[in-house]
## 1
Amino acid sequence: MTKTVLVMGGAGYIGSHTVKHLLDNGYRVIVADNLVYGHLEAIDKRAAFIHADLLNSASLYAIFNRHEIHAVIHFAAFAYVGESVQDPQKYYLNNVVGTINLLNAMLANNVKNIVFSSTCATYGEPNYIPIDEKHPQSPINPYGKSKLMIEQIFADYEKAYGLNHISLRYFNAAGCSADGEIGESHTPETHLIPLVLKAIKGERDSIHVFGTDYDTPDGTCIRDYIHIEDLAAAHRLALEKLPEYCGCINLGTGTGTSVKEIIFAAEKVSGKKCPTVYAERRAGDPAKLFADNTKAKEILGWQPHYASIEEIITTAWNWETNRKF
Ligand SMILES: NC(=O)c1ccc[n+]([C@@H]2O[C@H](COP(=O)([O-])OP(=O)(O)OC[C@H]3O[C@@H](n4cnc5c(N)ncnc54)[C@H](O)[C@@H]3O)[C@@H](O)[C@H]2O)c1
Ligand SMILES: O=c1ccn([C@@H]2O[C@H](COP(=O)(O)OP(=O)(O)O[C@H]3O[C@H](CO)[C@H](O)[C@H](O)[C@H]3O)[C@@H](O)[C@H]2O)c(=O)[nH]1
């Protein structure tokens, strides 16, 4: 029987790519989103769309009352680290209270399967790298704390109510759909790769490299950039692993790339120079973050297909030069 998956936040960047992947793999999909950041154009035409808000419980109950939902994939959240420090209330309300509302509506309708967008930001400043799931979690900003709180709520709900949950701790989501139909479109945009490409296109004056004196080979920060389609596939695999496995899984390639290496790769892909300004460090940036992805491989049978940063940036460049929204 075809299973129906509710994708909360499915009009956003990672959600919309996962919706497409689920539909391509035989799932029926309902997208729920309040469109504060998402785009209607990003939602695959094969999916149903419901305008709903995590903070409006009635809108959530209505979905579960009217539809037979097998599982929820929950992307809906605010995700600007700096803003979370300035206005933590906004983050705890939307991300934590909103998720509790979603869980209430699910459990009231006997829906017990959830896959959740967590983040490497729950680890905070790393004690060692690559980071595995046993690494202590000590987030350094309200955004990361809000995601850790949800992971902890899941563990309690599993014991008390039989919730089946997998929290996927993403490293840096990057790139766009290979067919160029959907891509990354955040407003404001804060992520490195789209900003570098916008500087190359002349849509911004330059890219500011935040810090050149880190303890890394070229002095700039190292991150683990994972292609959005590899991320999308992992969500389907996680869904298929419930209820056999519950817990947390890192999603990264296991390879670190520095800010300078991103800029060089983007220049190579586009064939153009990136106007670059070397600037001060950004507060709260660890020098190096990359994943130990052994657990994703072992438990989900997952394998990233995009092997190089050039391949990832090529998909992002195709999108930036032919954006649909
Ligand atoms: N982009 C990354 O690199 C990254 C890394 C780690 C974790 N994450 C997490 O992954 C998830 C998706 O990230 P993204 O980059 O696709 O973000 P996004 O902003 O593009 O997508 C989030 C979607 O959720 C919706 N939304 C927000 N609050 C809502 C509410 N109260 N009710 C209904 N819908 C609501 C937005 O309209 C948007 O469509 C987030 O939870 C984020 O914290 C992202
Ligand atoms: O204009 C910029 C933007 C970023 N960077 C650098 O590029 C790297 C990547 O920065 P991003 O902002 O693209 O990504 P982050 O690693 O800060 O953020 C990731 O981790 C966060 C938690 O730490 C959130 O989960 C977020 O959604 C996710 O993309 C960092 O070293 C950052 O200092 C620059 O040098 N210049």
Note: The chain has a mean pLDDT of 97.
## 2
Amino acid sequence: MAIIAPSLLAADFLNLSKDIELFNNSEAEWLHLDIMDGRFVPNISYGFPVLEKIRKATDKVFDVHLMIEEPEKYTEWFKAAGADILTVHYEACRHLHRNIQQIKSLGMKAGVALNPHTPINVLYEILPDVDMVLLMSVNPGFGGQSFIPNTINKIKKLRTLIDEMGLKVEIEIDGGISAKNAKEIVDAGATVLVAGSAVFGAPDPVAVIKELKSF
Ligand SMILES: O=C(CO)[C@@H](O)[C@H](O)COP(=O)(O)O
Ligand SMILES: [Fe+2]
């Protein structure tokens, strides 16, 4: 049974308190927060004032996905804004190991994210130091895109690598996930499913979360 992490990016920003209440009353354990800087990705999302307000409205885990250049400049800010898990992109970090150490030294769990074109084998030396790997199953920057089928092969390869190394690392998959493909993703070895438009775009987000949880 996977952890479900609805992505706030697809919530109704004119009615955030309603969507947070739905989330609070659902079986989802984590809230996925996408931070975009207009440099690493072509889009700009939301920032600290939004995070700080939502932090006061939920006790669930804050799963923060940084799609930003130089994430090390903001690690302490995200800790202060309430992040529990902070994930940086492999492609955005010149000193990934140092960034992971910095995140963990502040008491957060540390994740590393890979873009769809980045192979699993770049993780070999960092895997023992991270709590989670996030595999992008769409190109980062936007919600509502289609799942890239090759992600299933990547999940299987990563599952094998983690098991062979005897590690306990979460595998989070992000982008284009719905009740239609969730079973295949979980069966391949994923442990955390991010879903934005499939959850907040649905008439009954709580029911969709329940269905995703059943796989
Ligand atoms: O990180 C990202 C996009 O860059 C994701 O977290 C999306 O927000 C997921 O949205 P859907 O694909 O589920 O609509
Ligand atoms: Fe994300």
Note: The CA atoms of residues 29 and 35 lie 19 Å apart.
